[in-house]
Amino acid sequence: MTFILGLSIYCVGALMFWPAAVYRSFGGFCGAMFIVGSGLSTLEASANPYIAVCGPPKWAEFRLELSQSFQAVGSVVAPVLASFVIFKNVGEDGRSLSSVQYVYLGIAAFVAILAVIFYFAPIPEITDSDMADQAEMMTDATGYVDKPLKKQYTLFWGVAAQFCYVGAQCAIASFFINYFTQAHPNLSVTEAHQKGANFYAIAQALFAIGRFSAAGLMYVGLRPRWVLLTYQSLIMVFLAAAIGVNTGTATTPNWGGLSLLMIVLFFESCIFPIIFAISLRGLGRHTKRGASFLVASVSGGAVVPVILGNVADRIGTRHAMVVPLAFFVIAWSFPIYLNICKGKELDGYSDSKVGTSEQGTVDFDSIVAGKDVEAGRFEHKA
Question: Which segments of 184-321 does DSSP mark as H helices, in order?
Answer without folding.
Answer: 189-219, 224-244, 255-268, 271-279, 287-296, 304-315, 317-320
